[in-house]
Each structure stands twice: as structure tokens, then as C-alpha cells.
Amino acid sequence: MEGIILGNRYQLMDKIGSGGMAYVYKALDQTLDRIVAIKILKEEFLDDEEFVGRFHAEAQSVAKLSNPNIVGVFDVALEEKYHYIVMEYIEGVTLSDYIKDKKVLSDEEAMSIAIQICKALVHAHENNIVHRDIKPHNILLAKDGVVKVTDFGIAKATSNKTLTLSGRTIGSVHYFSPEQARGGFVDHRTDLYSLGCVIYEMVTGRLPYEGETPVVVAVKHIQEPVKDPTLQNKYITEDTKNIVMKAMAKSVDERYQSATEFLANIEAHMKGKELPNNFNLSLDFIKETDNMKNVGNVTRDFTPIKVTKEKGEEYDFSLSKNRRKKHTFSKLLAIFSAMLLILLLSFYGVKELITTIIPEIEEYEVGNYVNLYYDDIKDKLESEFDIIVEKREINNEEYIEGIIIEQSIASGIKFKEGGFNKIIFTVSLGPELIEIQDFTSFDYRIANHDLTELGLIITKEEVMSDIVDKGGIVRTDPEAGMMVAPGTAITVYVSLGPNLDEVEVPDFLGMNQTEFFQAANDANLIVGSIFPSNLQSLTALIIEQYPLAGEFVYESSEVHVKFQEENVEGDRILIDYLIIPANIDELEGSIKVYIEIKPTDTLRYEMIYNQNHEKSELPITVVIPIPIDGKTTLKVIFNNVYTEITELLYEDYKEEEPIIDPPPEESQPAPTPTPDTTGGT
Asked: Which domain holds residue 80?
């Protein structure tokens, strides 16, 4: 439907939601040049004139609501093929997705959200609008921190017709009030019970009631007391617990009697506390959750049950008007048949009559159809015993597409010929497939995080690339745009940079700065660190280099050198110092050891060591100079990340034999240890 223009005004752009009763589209209001959300009623409801009439009447009623915490309804319209509602477009996420992301909300954040929901309900109830489907999926959290309640129109229109449509109850069973679960009368206090369920989920991270089927959950709402939320989260305050327990009271008379009372209780509880006015919505989180993603989601359907003392649970199938007429006709027919039977008994024996006129009623015993193909079972049941067969489809990772997962009638139950025989199968759509995103040029860590979150198994492969910078992603296998199931293995190819040639490192020892720069350029190498960094003299000569002369490295690799020091004042002692990282157990593979010193006689940092070592080669020993009556600051960096800084005091090592520098005119650089190229200690 994308591209269609409704009412010569609203151009549909993208489908952003889908539910049992409606689709939701992002659209452009061409008249006011603004983005809106449009909810379009599904075709199967168009023939129900009563439902459509109430849908429009209630939507128009909700359109009159004006509150910052309610998603605004701008227009309600009817065209030849479309019934639709034009609503405010909210940029943000649903509370459902927010809870999934944060797991458990703090008291302050949960109550900040609850206060705004309460304000929406106060306004709606004052205008005689009852929502009837308060749940996290219908609560939107805008980027500016405002909470918006949506889906008033659909809920009200549905509830005014009846609590059920085609044998299904409208509303989310996990947030049902007991009166909703029983199919009884509901009023504004139903919304307050549902809000209590929402707060319970926010502060515990769990639903108040869970079960294998919606029916089980509904019965628990009716019969079982709610579990103390402090047993789920020990950090919940006593006031929060009491608010939740009162809101979720089984009896409507024991709950809050109005949204105003509910709101006042929460505000009194949070008085003096600082409430957050925005939400922790990272850009990644918003990206993964499309705007108004779940606005159109319909709640789970279930068939209600009735309980009798004699028969326990039975499936509740209401009789239509036509079936009631048939039932009356059947009674008259039965009376007539009885009179005819009396006449026949005078001519035939009882045994002969029964066998000839009253044949035995056939029965069909329901089997266990789980793990079988739905199409095969449907054909069998409909053709052999005239059983009404329906299906509900869901994604499932354990069953392939078309396989039956559940059945509404248990095996062993017997259907009688001529009765209302119906069975509903839950059928697998197979795993919910995931589309591989185009990660070209992305950092590998981003792709690894996003793909792992989707349940995919990641393998990293490094390849040369003249196009993608080092560390960026070249491609994936399966490639971008492919649809895969959770658990699929995906290979991510990461760039090592251009396909460079190896070059032999020249011998730079004894060169001055000018000679070094030219030699490095000729060898296609890059000048790296120079020590001392504030070297002024053009005649100073290189006394150390890394990598060492004769080693082979890739083109454009960096070369680090050290020139002889000039004008070193005072005397020094030399000590042997043991180097080993404190977190050595956490380090893996090759470990880069980089050492700088800053003696008090020069007060500048200089590199004395820069080499890679395997973990088995550590510790190493280096020679450190310490000025007499001074100190040397030692900085050791492992793998360019982990840093250890130590101060070596002359007082602690003065027993060592001092080395006296010669007169300035004959000064030579202090002995500097030659880097260990063998990896030994």
C-alpha cells in the first residue's frame, strides 16, 4: 500500500506496525507538510457494519481527548475501501522494548512513567473513555522524556460491541483484570488493575502471571493472589509494593477507585525524590526499534472457559441466532419423533426398531497431531468427519514451517457426529528470519555486537583490502540482505589494509636526523617516535632503533629511534629492574612492552625500551639510570593500553656504585641497554 494517497491528502510511506485488527503506516500529511501515523482497519472487519460504526463513533470520541500524555488523533475518515484514523507520529520506543532493554527499572524511573500514564487515564476517564488494554506495548516513550498512551479508539470500539469477536477475546491476557478474564462487566477500574500489572513488570522485569496458554494465565488472574514483587526484586521499596498490590486487588472495590486517587498515592510516595525526565535511549536502541513499532500490535487472543461443578473446564462456544432457531426446531422434531416412535412400537419389536430406525451415533476420537503437517491433518479431519479446522500461525525455532505445535482439543476427547466439532491448531511458521545488515566499512566490534545480539554465530576472517581501511569490514557471508535463522554461522571478513610488500629495515644507527628521514623514505617506511622528543641538534646520532636492522616489515610500517642525549647534568647510578605486568594472566598472544623514563636531572621523558614478547618470555630485566640524590619516574606500557608508573628513588638504591659522567668536553651518552632481539630475559 506504500505510495497510496488517502483522502487526497495522506501519502502512505512505510508500514510500521501490524495487528489483528489494523495496519499502521507512516505517512506524509501533504496539506500541513508533517509526518503522521495512520491506522487502517483490516478488510475482514469491513463487512461488520455494527463494528465499523462503533469504530468510527469511538475514534471520533477519542479524537476529542487533548492531553500531552495521550497520542493525539487528528482525523477519522471513511473511503470506499479504507477506514482509517490519522494519529500523532511519535519518535521513540514502546515501553515493552524499553523494559526488554533495561531488564528492571528503578523505583524512580518506573514511578515517573506510571505518573504520566495515570495523568492520561485521569483525562480519559473524566471524558468517559475506558482504555481496556493498558499494557507496555501501548505505551510510547518519546525521545524528549514524555510518556504517551495510545490505542484508545480501537479498545473502546471493540469493548462496546462485545468482549469477544469470533470467539476471541480482545486484550492482552497478561495484563487482564479478573473481570475481563471472566468476560464480565468492566469499568475504569479495569485500567487501574492493568496499570498495576505494568508497574509490576517495570520494577521486577517479570510478568505478574505466566502460564503455558493464555487460558491458564487468565484463570490465574481470577484465582491466584499476585506474588509479592519484593520476592522478585529485593530493592523494591515497601511503598512501591503496596501501590502495586492495591492496584492489582481481585475485587474492584479494594482497588484504587479512580485514576486521580492512584496518581495522588504515587506522587505522595515519590514526594521529595528526584524523578528522571528522560529515558536512556541510545541511538543503537532507537535504530533497532522502529518508531511506533508496536503501535498497531493487537493483543493476544484466547478462547475463554467456563467452569462447572459437574464437568470442570469446557470450551465455551456461544450459539448464534441461526443456531438457536435450529435448536428450537430440533425440540419440535424430537417431540414429533417420540410420538412416531410410540406408534411404531405397536407394530415392531423394540430390538428390531432400535436396529433399523435409530442407528448408533458415530464418534471420532481426537488424536495427538503435534509434530504432524497441518495440511495433511486438516484434509483428514474435514473430509472424514466434517470437523471445523482452524489454525493460528507463529514463528518457532524448534519446528519447521507447516508443523503443528499445539492443538486446542486434547487427544482422547471424542467428537460426536452432528455436534459442533471444532479444533484449532497452532502451526509453526518456522524460525523468525533475520536480515543481514550491510556492515561494509563498519568497525568489526560494532558488527560483532549487533550480529551476536541477533543470535548469530560469528567467525572472524582477516583479508587484505585496497578499498576498506584496516579494521573495517570488507563483506559478510551470507552477504548483506540475506535472510537467515537465529543460530546461523556468519563469517565477517575484516580488512588488514592494502596488500603491502615486505621490506628489510635498514641500519639507521649512527645517522643524524636528516640522514634518517631520507633513509626511511627510501625504504618506504614511516618515521615514528623520536627520543628525546625535544631534540634540537641536527648533529646528534641515532644510538637505538626499533624495529632492528635486518628485520622484515610491511611497507608504511613505523620506525622508532633514539638519539644520543646531550647536556646530561650530574651523576647517575645504574640499576637492574625487573619488568612484569600486574595483569599478566589477562593478556594473550604477543605483548608489546614500551618503557619511558623521566630522570630529575633532565626532567624529560625518553624511550629506553620498545619490543614485543610472548607471555612465556616475561619477566624481562632492563637497566634504569637514577640521578644521585634524585629519582627516576618509570612508565611501562603494555599493549598500548595498560600502564604502570613507578618512582625509583636514589635513597633506595644508593648502595649501587655511582657512574661519574666525564667532563662536558668529552661527554659521551650514558650506557643504554641494547634491546633483546632474541626474546630472552
From this structure: 5-88
Nearest to residue 213, comparing CAs of 304, 122, 342?
A: 304
For residues 161 and 57, give the distance between their C-alpha atoms in angstroms, rounded to a whole number: 12
Residues 243 and 163 occupy one common structural domain: yes
pLDDT band at 245 (very low <50, low <70, confident <90, very high): very high
Average pLDDT (127-134) is 89
439 plus 394 within the same structural domain: no
DSSP string, 540-600: --EEEEESPTT-EEETT-EEEEEEPP-S--S-EEEEEEEE--TTGGG--S-EEEEEEEEET
Whether 83 and 97 share a structural domain: no
DSSP state of 216: H
| pTM, full prediction | 0.44
The model's pLDDT over 346-389, given as tens digits with 9 standing for 90+, comes to 444 444 434 433 445 577 888 999 999 999 899 888 877 778 89
Which residues touch 259 (CB under 8 Å, ≥6 apart)? Answer: 118, 121, 122, 125, 188, 191, 192
pLDDT-derived band at 117 (thresholds 50, 70, 90) equals: very high
Cell numbers for 668, please give them.
659521551
Distance CA 164, CA 18 (A): 20
Contact 236, 107 (CB under 8 A): yes
Mean pLDDT over each residue of the chain, to the nearest integer: 79
Catalytically active residues are: 133
pLDDT value at 603 more than 90 = no
CA angle 451, 394, 71 (to 5 degrees): 80
* Range 592-610 average pLDDT: 88
434 CB contacts (<8 Å, ≥6 apart)? Answer: 454, 455, 456, 483, 484, 485, 486, 488
Residue 419 has a pLDDT of 64
Do 389 and 261 share a domain, yes or no?
no
Query: Is residue 490 within 8 Å of residue 459, measured between CB atoms?
Result: yes
Q: Checking DSSP bridges between strand 542-546 and strand 502-504, what pairing results, if any?
A: unpaired
Would you say how long the chain is, in residues? 681
* Residue-level pLDDT at 116: 95
User: Which of 288, 304, 331 is at the close of a domain?
Assistant: 288
Contacts of 18 (CB under 8 A, 6+ apart): 24, 296, 297
CA atoms within 13 A on the CB side of 608: 25
pLDDT of residue 486: 80
The greatest distance separating any two alpha carbons of the chain, rounded to the nearest whole angstrom, comes to 149
Residue 480: pLDDT over 80: yes
